[in-house]
Design brief:
single chain; 2 domains; alpha/beta; 18 helices; 6-stranded parallel sheet; Rossmann fold
Length: 373
């Protein structure tokens, strides 16, 4: 069977790659064409566009790059028609994917959506398009099933969160070996995860680095995002107490004492590694002012949203400053505060539904589109 997948971010590349692996295990004649990244490309098939060329963050940035986005949409439609897939699999990235899904539905193509758009956070009106255009939806957060089925009478499959598999099945590295290989000393490590897009990294990393001199008993390590050169990061580094690692986020988290993390999937990854964290976010003033008016959530981190309580501290916009960040990092280095947070992290993992999200999703897709033998 022929599968066309569309992922527009680093996290989508990870989950898309795992899904492709599981689809191959169930369909020996699987052929892939996709928008994604290096991880998906390693699974085989044809990479059409890399997500690093698609990442436009915030309202203002999207408007500025509107012509490029529209050109990408037109190209994608043409490419799908030429490939003639048996199914299109959309992985998050709703602004782009829902436009393609509307067109694909009109052209008689099968639309499956893996990792729901976060319409429970904003743009709930998109439910009309999803009910009209999407043939199957696979959700990864426990409250999403209730949101769709009880709130909007749209059946979905809760498959669990794919990050659990990605973390559990990864190759392990011994802490001493890790430190030796990357030239780190014996001091506890504070991981810095400033995001995956240049716009957010530029705003967030400067503030993260502003506190490093206040913690000389610790060493700070920046986790570089896939697709961005080291030179982009090093221009921000002024302190010799800061190191940089590229494409080693999971290894870094596995040996870290604490982390400063940009809001997004990374907050959940950090929690699953049982690393105490401070969640950080700062966008452009225009984007933030618009977001305040259209997003109605108590929290911005997935950890707090799933647990429905402020388990981890969130520093947003003006609250994300040197003084507050220093205070909050000091708190999560305290033994008592860490013990409380560890208990919350164990509750979080139980809520996420266990292992096998990619396998469950692949099985549903194959059962739906492959002819009965």
């Amino acid at each position: 069977m022929k599968y066309y997948l569309i992922a527009g971010e680093a996290s989508g590349d990870l989950h898309g790659a795992n899904l492709m692996s599981q689809l191959k295990a169930r369909d020996g004649d699987a052929h892939f064409r996709f928008w994604g990244g290096d991880l998906m490309q390693a699974e085989g098939g044809t990479l059409v566009k890399h997500y690093k060329d698609l990442a436009f963050m915030g309202f203002a940035e999207v408007i500025t790059n509107l012509r490029t986005i529209l050109n990408n949409i037109a190209f994608c439609k043409k490419d799908i028609l030429e490939f003639e897939p048996d199914v299109i699999i959309y992985i998050d990235y709703p602004g782009f994917n829902l436009r393609i899904a509307k067109w694909a539905k009109r052209n008689g193509l099968a639309n499956h959506y893996y990792i729901s758009p976060q319409i429970w956070a904003w743009k709930e009106g998109r439910i009309k398009a999803i009910k009209r255009d999407i043939d199957a939806m696979y959700v990864i957060l426990p409250f999403e099933k209730t949101f769709y089925e009880k709130g909007h009478q749209f059946p979905v499959e809760f498959v669990g969160h794919p990050l659990i598999d990605a973390i559990v099945t990864r190759d392990q590295i011994h802490p001493d070996e890790f430190r030796s290989f990357y030239g780190l000393d014996e001091r506890p490590i504070i991981a810095l995860l400033p995001g995956s897009r240049k716009q957010e990294i530029s705003k967030i990393l400067k503030v993260m680095l502003s506190i490093t001199s206040h913690f000389p008993q610790h060493q700070f390590v920046i986790a570089g995002a896939p697709g961005l050169d080291e030179s982009f990061y090093t221009r921000f580094i002024q302190d010799q107490n800061v190191k940089f690692l590229q494409n080693k986020t999971y290894d870094l988290l596995s040996v870290s004492t604490a982390a400063l993390v940009t809001s997004g999937t990374a907050t959940l990854e950090t929690a699953l590694f049982k690393v105490p964290q401070v969640v950080c976010y700062k966008g452009s003033r225009i984007s933030y002012e618009i977001a305040k008016r259209v997003i109605h959530l108590k929290y911005i981190s997935l950890v707090n949203l799933i647990l429905n309580k402020p388990a981890v501290t969130e520093l947003i916009q003006s609250e994300f400053n040197t003084k507050r960040l220093k205070e909050e990092l000091s708190k999560i280095l305290d033994d008592y505060q860490r013990a409380v947070l560890f208990l919350d992290y164990y509750d979080l993992e139980n809520e996420l539904g266990g292992r096998g999200a990619s396998a469950k999703t692949a099985q549903h897709i194959v059962d739906t589109i492959m002819p009965v033998q």
